[in-house]
Amino acid sequence: xxxxxxxxxxxxxxxxxxxxxxxxxxxxxxxxxxxxxxxxxxxxxxxxxxxxxxxxxxxxxxxxxxxxxxxxxxxxxxxxxxxxxxxxxxxxxxxxxxxxxxxxxxxxxxxxxxxxxxxxxxxxxxxxxxxxxxxxxxxxxxxxxxxxxxxxxxxxxxxxx
Length: 161
What we know:
The protein is an alpha/beta fold. It has a single domain, classed as Nucleotidyltransferase, domain 5 (2-Layer Sandwich), CATH 3.30.420. Helices cover 47% and strands 23% of the residues. A hairpin with a 4-residue loop joins strand 1 and strand 2. The radius of gyration is 15 Å and the shape is globular. The N and C termini lie close together (6 Å).
């Protein structure tokens, strides 16, 4: 199994797409960058999706990840929101593909299990574990960026050699 050294984690959303980049050096994980790609609700959906694509491309060009890990869509009670988030997720998958980078997907349960050793962990628990695992000075903010880092950690754990 291939050992990926730089992983881009993505927590897709139309208003906020969280991203987190980690580096794996012989099993020691470190944080390269994290944040959120924000789009305005005043923009048309195609424009918002384009912003997500352009910003993800910038991150890929700058950090050259070996793998992109994306959170699978959690289908809640709001179907309209799920459909729009699904489109943002599709943009992330396509952006990875067009940059010739393999992508993998994980459920929220898998991510929580990998990071906090409990699939039903609360957001705060996940944030504290991400801080500890990556030796960060502060809790990663915003929430979607912390989730993206957790997704990257999950991918690193899943593909460690």
